[in-house]
Structure formats: C-alpha cells, structure tokens
Amino acid sequence: MPLYFQRPENALKRAHEFSDVGKKQAALDALYDVIKSRKHRTWQKIHEPIMNKYLELCVELKKSHVAKEGLFQYRNICQQVNIKSLEDVVRNYLRLAEQKTEAAREESQAVVDIDDLDQVQTPENLLLSAVSSEDTQDRTDRVVLTPWVKFLWESYRQCLELLRNNSRVERLYHEIAAQAFKFCSKYNRKTEFRKLCDNLRAHLGHINKHQNQQTAVNLNNIDSQTMHLETRLVQLDVAVHMELYQEAFKANEDIYGLINQSKKAPNPRLMANYYQKQALVFWMSSNYLFHAAALFRLFHLSREQKKNITADEIMKLASKVVLATLAIPMAPNRTDIDRLVETDENVIDKNNRTLSNLLGLPNPPTRALLIKDLVRFGIIQYAPPQLQDLYRWLEIEFHPLKLCSRIQQSIDFLIKWEDYSELCQYISPIKEITIVRLVKEISQVYETIKFSRLLELAPFVDSFQLEYLIVEIARRNDLQVRIDHKMQCFHFGAELNVSQREEIIEGPHLQSMISEQMRNLLVRYSSALNKASNAIQPDKLKIERKELAKEISKAYILTSSKDHMRILNRQQIIEERKEMLENLSYLKEAEEKKLLEDKQQKLREAEKERMQRETEERTKQRLLREQSEMKRKVVMEKIEQMKKTEIGSKIFEGMDEEELEKLDPDDILNKHVEQLERERRDMQTKLKKQEKKIDHFERAKRLEEISLLLQEYEQTKLKDLEFWEQHEKERIKAIKEERTLAVQERDRLMRLRDDKEAFLERLKKSRTSEYQEKHEEFNKKLEEERKKRLEERKQKRREERRTTWLMEQEEKRQRQIDEELKREREEAHAKLEEIEAKKRAKEKEIEERLKREEAAALERKREDEKALNRVKEAEKPKSNWREREMEKKQSWLPREEKDRESPRTESDTDWRRKGDDPPRKPDDRDRSDDWRRKTDRPKEGGGGSWRRDAPPTSRGNERDRDWRDDRDSRRPGDSDRLPPREDRDRFSKPSDRGYDRDKFLKEGDGGSRLDSRDRYPRGDRDTNPRPDRGGRPDDRGSWRSGGFKRDGPPPDSGVSWRDRNPPSRDNEDRSEKRGTKDAARRDRGNEEDDGFVRVRR
What we know:
Elements: H1 8-20, H2 24-36, H3 47-61, H4 64-78, H5 83-108, H6 123-131, H7 136-163, H8 170-186, H9 190-209, H10 222-241, H11 245-261, H12 268-284, H13 288-305, H14 311-326, H15 344-359, H16 367-376, H17 385-395, H18 403-416, H19 427-445, E1 448-450, H20 451-457, H21 463-475, E2 481-484, E3 489-492, H22 514-519, H23 521-536, H24 538-568, H25 570-643, H26 646-651, H27 657-662, H28 665-749, H29 753-875, H30 881-892, H31 897-901, H32 910-914, H33 958-965, E4 1001-1003, E5 1008-1011, H34 1012-1015, H35 1018-1023, H36 1057-1060, H37 1068-1073, H38 1075-1089, E6 1092-1094
Antiparallel strand pairs: 1-3, 2-3, 4-5, 5-6
C-alpha cells in the first residue's frame, strides 16, 4: 500500500474496502496517511467524511491517542478555512464515544441468566466472594464498562486540550466542559472530576498568559465572561452533588476571580446560584457564620433583583436567614494575651477575611452584626410568627425557667412544617445555642444549681451532652462555672482576686454575677460619690468650668497667628502634593508599561519555545512510528525464519496472520522458552521414575530407625515430666500469693462499690440511645468508607500496573536504541577497516609497480653501458698478457668517489667477495640470462649476432626484465640485522605519524619534496646507531622516521637501495684503516643523494 494517495477520495474508498473485510487497522492507517500528508493540507469538502470515518475507526479500536493526532492535524487544516467543519467532527466523535459507553453500561447491567434455579450461587462465585469484596456486577463493570469509560474520559480531555484558548470554538469548548462534568457525575468519577477541574484552571491561566495570539480568547468580552461563569457554576453544582466540597470551594474562588475581572455586573440569576452554592459549602464545612452571611446576600439579591418574587418565596428565604443567624455559635471571649500570641483564633481571623472577599463583604461578619441586620432590614417581619417568637425568646426576653419549653414549641413547628423540611437542619445548632443561653441566664440568678434541676429545665438534652456543653463554655471563657461531681451541682462565679476577662453583655441580661458585682464594687462607689459631690456643690463646678474656658481662650490667642498662617499655606501644600502624586502616577504608569512589555516579550519567547517543543515532539512521534514499523518487519522475518525450524513450526502452529503481527520479540522468545520448558518437563518425568527407586531405599532405612527413635522418646518424656512437676509447684505458690494480694485489694475497693454502680447505671442509661443512633450512623459511614477505599485501592492498583507497564516499555525502548547504536558503531568500524585495507593494498601495489619500473630503467641503462664498453673493447687493439694482468689488479682496487656515486651492478666476480664457488656449471645459473646459449641466438636473417664484434643490441626486452625481477632483493648482511626499532624524535616520544606534513614540504618541479635532514634527525643517528650490516656500518636510516604512516609506502628517492650505498671492494684491513673517512664520505654522499625525495601519493 502506498504511503500517500494521489486523491483523498481513493483513500476513503480503500478504507471502506478494508472495513468491509474486517481489516480496520489497515483502514485506519490508510486514512492517517492522508491526514498527515503535506500534500493534502488544503481543506476540501472530502476531508470531513474522511475525518468522520477516521474517528469512527478510532472509537471502534479504542485508540484515543491516534484520534488525538488526527484531530490536531485536522484543526491545522481547517482552522483558517472552515472552523464549522471542526466543530461538527468533534461533536460527532464525542457522540460516538458516548454511545459506545452507554451501550457498554447497559451490557454490564444486564441480568445474568441462571441455568439452575436450585443452585443460584455457583462454587466459582462463592470462591470469588470469599477472596474479594467485589460482586458479579463490579467484576462485569471492570471488564466491560471501565475500558469505555476510560476512552470517553480521554476523549473529553483531548477535545478540551484541542479547543482551548481559541475564540472561534469557545462555545464548543464550554459545551464539552459541561458534558465532561455530567460524565463525572453520571459515572461517579471523583478522581477524573478533580483532574478536569485542574485542567480547566490551567486553561484559564493559559488564556491570561497568551493574550497576544491571533485566536486568543478575550476575557474582557462579556460573552466570554458569561460562558466562563456558567461553566464554573456547573462545576460548582457537580462538586456539591458529588460531595467534593474542597473542589467546590476552589470553584467559588474561580468564580470570584472572574467576577472581579469583569467590568460589568454579572447576571443576577448566576449570582443567586453562586450564593446558594456558597451557603451550602459553608454549611457542610460547619462554618455557620458565613453560611448565614451567604444567605443574607442571597435574600437581598432576590428581593431587589427578582421582579416576580412571591410572598411565599420571601417567607421561605427570611425563615432560612433567621434560623441560620440564630444557629451561629457565640464567638468565644478571647483574653488579652490571645491577641498577642499566634493561636488558632488568629488563623481563623485570617481565613475569615478571605471568605469575606468571596462574598463581597468589606469586613468579616459577626453574630451580633447579623442579628442587628435582621432587625434593621426588617427580615424578622417576613418570617412566620413562630420564628419571630424564637428570635424574641433567644435574643430579647429574659426567662430562664421557661426558655427551653418555649424553644421546644418552635422546634415542633419546624418539624411539622413539611413544605420546608430543609429547615430541620438548623434544629441541632439551635438546641446548643438554647443551652448556652439557659446556662448564662441561670448564672445571673443563681450562684449554685443542682445538676438534676438543670436537666429538668433543659428536657431535650441528656446529662452527658449538657455537661459537655458547659465544659466547652467554660473552656472558651464564656462563663465562670465549676462542676462539683461529689455534690452533683454547678457553682457559678470565680474568686474575687481573679479576673479572666472583661464582662461583655450579649443577649438577654438581668444583672451580672455576684462575683462580678463584688469585683466592680469600688468602681461603682467611686462613680456614685462623684455624682453626689457634683450635686452638693454645683457653684464650684461652674467656677472651675469658667476658669478652664479663660485658659483655653488665652492659649488660642497665643497661637492664633500661627494657625492662621498654617491655614493659608494649606492650599500651597495641597497643590504641591497633587503635583507629587501626578509625578508618582506617571512614573508608576511608565514602570507598569515597561513591565508589560517585558512580560509580552517573555510570553513571545515562551510561545516560540513551545512551538519548538511541539515540533520536536512531532518529530519524535514520527520516528517512533517508523521504528515500530521496522520492528514489526523484523519480527515477521524472525517468525519466518523460526517456522523453518522444528521447534518454530510447533510454536506457531495454529496461529493466523493477525496474531503473528501482534507478537513482539519478547513474546516470540517466551514462546520459544515455553516449548523448551515442555520438553524439559518431559525429561523431568523420566527422572522422577528413577527417583522412586531411590525413595524405596530411603524408606527401608527409616523403618530401621523406628526402634531407636522410640527409645529416645521414652527418655525425653521422663525428663519433661520432672521439669513440668517442678514448674507446677512454683506456679501454684505464685498464684496463692497473688490471690492474697487480690483479696486485700478487693476489700479496700468494696467501699466504693455503691457510688460506682450508681454512676455506671446513670451513664449507661444516658448513653444507650446515643449509642444506638451513632452505631447506625457508624455502620452507614463504615459501608461508605469501605466502598470508597475499595474504589481507591482499585484505582491505585490500576495506576501501579500502568506505571509498571510504562517503565517496562521505556526500558524496552532504551534497550532497542542501545542495540541499534551498537550495531551502527560496529558497521561504521567495519567500513573504516575495509577502506583502510583497500587503501593499504592499493598503495602497496603502486609501490611495487614503481620499484619494478625503476629497476627496469636502471637495468636498461647498465646493459647499454656494458654493450658500449664491449664495442669499445672490440675496437681497441688486442693487448698482451701483461696488460690483462694489470686490468685484473685494477679491478681489485678501491673504487673512486665518482664510481661510488654511479649505480653499482653486480658483476661476475662478486662470487669472490661472497666466498662462493665460481658459477661455471650452467645448472647453477639462471637460464633466463644465458644469452650465449644457442637457443637464444638469432636465426638467419635476424638482426643480432652472438659474436663480440657484432653490433650492440637492446637488452631491455621482456626476457631481461623477468631476469632482473627474479634477483634476490636482500643485500649481504641483512639477516644479521635486528628488527626495525620504533623511531623516536629528539624528545624521546614516538614519531607522530599524523603530524602536519606541510611544514616539511618544499615545492619542486616534480611536486612536493621532503628534506632528509628533517626526516632523519641527527640525534637518532648519533645516540642510537644501528648494528653493522656484514661488518660495515649501516647508515641508511629508517624510511619510517620521515613522518609517514606505518602502513604507507617508504619514500621514493628515485635510486635503488642497492646503488645508494655500494659495498666496498677493499679487504678487511683496508676497511679498518679507512673506516672513519669512508663513513664520513658515505654520510655526505647519502645527504647529497637523498637530500630531497619525491613524495608520491
């Protein structure tokens, strides 16, 4: 199949064909190639059905990540052309996902058919219920419903990520957010709801940061603000419905931030819903103060903004406000030291200021202020008469003996008021407030009261709850009271020398307690005496006031001029301050402008980095896809290879092509291991048969041991009996002593038995009913908590499995990358070695060819010279025997300097120096150079002659070259030399084969040349001379020291090594006498001959 199609219609047709034959994955691949192709980036009408088919296949195959890639590609295609097409595609995608999820839900809730009615519970179900708390429905949901729920959640999240911060699809974004909230509520997905809230909060922050984009959402737009507020209110409703009050509080904060950002007043209907949910959140968090404040705001908003509000609605709201206000617990009276120390109350004050901002209140509310507002705004008059009486009895009238009975009438009214049953939630707090009021009013009348009498005055509470409330009042310094358990009474008031707080009058008040009156007695005496003195001597008071007025007028006259000048200068000071404020405002605006520019620059840079990261991520994803495709091909090749083997044919027998494509190398290896394991088990079965034989032998041995073990058992039993009798005596003695002490303790405690029994009887009666109620409540909470924890545990296990799977995938991918890198390095290394080997072979071939050509040229030259000499000798007259003897002696004399410089050829007399026999036999000589043989003579009519007086002929033919090539290339004494040593420079370091050769190059006619003085350092020849070659010093040096590579050819000087330094013809004595001069001469000759050598590449 091609990677792209010439026309998108062909891809859609091919996808339908694949779908018809059941190859949905191939159909999806074909459509994906079209969507990601750069050739089809221009939107066409055919793109929309292609995307619908693509998303339909993604839903059927549950591949949400593939759907995400396609949606992002399609957004880039149609964003600038037809954004409506993107909306339709996204809606269709979510509709398909919701339909599949709903179908899975119906399937999981279907009734399971029971085959045998006599056996409803099968053994399998009983075993599963014993090891797990899940029932059949839970297991069915996990297998059938959960994968589709996960797919639908990922679809919502991906669509929100696709449409965020895009003003063209802003309404679709908020619709999908509302659908996601409904999904969380429908399937009770609390974790996903928290993630969804976090994502929406992050998207809102992204909108604020990236306002400079082309399609960015403008939060200053009224429609955008309204949509965001509606979405947050839906979030608030769902959070309250799912009892996630922490998320509800965060939603309230988001709504408050959007309201402050808006320049226009929000819709009253939205604000009413906001205050209503706020009140519910505060009530669930037991913050009754702000619950009542939120209801106050809701009442004012409804009465002022709602046009068609009815009297019944006003009465309901007023009743709720009155009850919520009266249910607020009384604020504790804090001591002076609490205001100076960081306590819990200080933290509560800071939180109250934050909560006040959420309700739009300038200052934190208090119970006293809210009760005053009930009267000032006339809210009490809208409430029913029974609630008005409740307010009057709790806050105005002082009658402690009838307070609880009157409050009970209002409570009965609330219980019977069925139309507004939600008001019953305020009954419990109002009872607690009633008990507090009762105790405070009784403390103003009585100094001591019996516990039983107080229970008679408060019939709707038990003794334990009453005692708890009184202790809590005393702990908060609201009341000075002491409990006397011995006398079963309460004592009000404290010592006269102790004052914990300043008395604050709140609610109905008759008089202060006796202790407070005695403590303030001197203050009252002082005020009474001052009033009496003023009444007895009124003239004296008038005189003192007149004198004080005169002194005040004198003081004013002294400072009147200064005051007048200060008033005159006030206008100038005001103008200067105005100018200063304008300058400060200008500087502040300039600084804000600069900060804004810097912020926009940072935003642009951040956007650029984000685009770069996205590009890198797309490239990475593409490479991953290519790697996966390559991996699939490798797996298929490996499977084909294994099928040819005996074990492989057994492993893959019965598997179709689709199952083989799903296998990875690890699965193949596992199957191979399993096959080997089966063969191993067969082998173990054979071994077990042999083991039985050994087992019978072991049994025979143990039968023989039985008699010995019985004897040892009898001895051990006697020893244990003696040990037990000794310890039993000690135990009986200790028990008797312990019982004596226990009897004494019992007699001592019997005196307290009656008091204990009375206390326990009273406590049991008071706690029995409370225990039953709390026990039922506890069972309900326990069941809810058990379900919650099981769900959390299931989610945790799912996350752990996912994390483990991701880690294994990452390790697997890393291993593949490492193996690929290792293979590439080995291939590169092998290629480099192959290139080097070819290079060395080529250089060696060139070197050998050059040597052959040079040797052939020198041989031709020598043959020409010999022929010329023979001609000259033939022309000279014949000499006598004396001249011939002189020539023979002359041949044994040392050569002259000019002869040394000429190339030396090996003559027929060299056998004398070598110590060999003369070459007289024809078999000892090479037949190729026997030019005197008759077989080599020219035929008649030829151009040559074998006689000495014949004309010279050319000997540079092919036969002569073969004869020259067959000669021995080694000189005498080469076998005595040591192997070549490692050349080093004058700093005792190995010669660098790769150093810069340009500094040694010199330009010449034939190319670059290398100076021999640089190639052969003098220090090496002086300090480390080479061994003698055949009794003569070897001064040739090493061709490696010239900076050439180890595997490269030696430098070509143009002269053969045989002719570079010909051997001396003198005898041994003459060599020793002239050794120094000849060595110096040879060195100088070598430098002259080899001063420059041609560098051949």
